Amino acid sequence: MIKAVIGASVVVVYILMVMGNVVTTTGSGLACPDWPLCHGTVAPPLEISIWFEWGHRLLGGTAGLLVLSSAIVVWLNFTGRLRWLTSSALGLLVVGVIFGGIIVLIEAPMLKETLHLLIISFHILLATIIFALMILAYRSLPGPALEEDGKFYLYMFGLVFLQVMIGIFVRYGKAGLACGPDFPLCMGYLIPPFNTFEVTIHYVHRLVATAIFFYALWHMIDVIKKGYDSKKAIITFALILTQASFGIALVLTGMFLPFIILHGANGFLLLGWLVYRSAPYLVSAEPATITDELEIA
C-alpha cells in the first residue's frame, strides 16, 4: 500500500507539472480571479481557459492529498530518510500552494518582466524538487539493494536540471525565437553577435542541449560496445533525442503550441527518469520498518 501511495504521488505530481505548462502556455494562469474558489464557486463558467486553471487547481489538491497520505503512512511505518523525503515534499507543496494563492489574490497581471520570470521560475523549481523527492522516496522503500549504473546518470541529471532552469529563462524571457526560425544556425551565424540577453540565453540553451545530446550518444555507444545491458542507455538517449526534436520543431514552427506542451512533458519525464536512475548515489533503501524493529525486539 505504501509503495502504491508514493507511486501514485509521483504520477499525479508529474501530470500536475504538465498541466501547469498547459496553463502558462495558454495564458490561463489568472482565468480564476479568486482563490481558493474560482469565480466564487466550485463549478465555474464553462470556458476553456477557466477550466484549464480550475482543473490545475483540482489536480494540485489531489497531488497534495497523495503527498500528505505518503507522509502519514511513512511516519507511521518508517524512521530515517523516508520521513525526511516525504515531509520535505509536503512542506514544499504547501509553500507552493500558499504562494500561488497569494499571487492570484494580489492580481498578478501587475507582475511583469523580471518579477514574473522569477515567480514562474520559483514555481517550476518547487515542482521539480517535489517530483524528485517523491521519486527518491519511492526508490528508498525497503527492498533489494539499488543497482548502480555508474555515475553517468547522476552527471546527466545535473546537466538536464541545469538545462531546465536555462529553459525557463528562454521560455518566459521571450527568447524562444531570439535566433529567428533558424536552425542549426542562429540568425544566419554559427556564433551570433551576443548583443542582447535573449540571444545569449537562447544560444547557451542550444550549447547545453548539444552537450547533453552527445554525452548521451557517447554513453549509449560505449555501453553497446562493451556488451553491457544497453536498455537503460537506449531509453535515456531516446528521451533526449525526442526532447531535442521537439526543441528544434519549436524553433522551426515559431513556437507552435502543441510542441511547447510536448517539449515540457517530455522534459519532465526525462528529468524523472534520470532521478530514478541516479537514486543509488542519492539514497539507499531503508533497512527496516518500525513494525519490523518492534517484532525483532
Give a quick precis of the structure.
71% of the residues lie in helices and 0% in strands. It is mostly helical and 297 residues long.
Radius of gyration, CA atoms, in whole angstroms: 21 Å
Number of helices: 9
Structural class designation: mainly alpha
Oligomer: single chain
The major β-sheet equals: none
**Average of pLDDT:** 84
The level of helicity is over 70%
Q: What's the shape?
A: flat
SSE sequence, one letter per element: HHHHHHHHH
End-to-end Cα distance, whole Å, is: 24 Å
- For the secondary structure, the number of strands is 0
Residue windows where pLDDT falls under 50 for at least 5 positions: 292-297
DSSP strand content: under 5%
Structure description:
By secondary structure, the protein is mainly alpha-helical. It starts with a helix and ends with a helix. It has helices at 2-25, 48-77, 81-105, 113-139, 152-172, 197-225, 231-252, 257-282, 290-296. The longest helix has 30 residues, at 48-77. Helices cover 71% and strands 0% of the residues. Mean pLDDT is 84; it is low at 292-297. It has 9 helices and no strands.
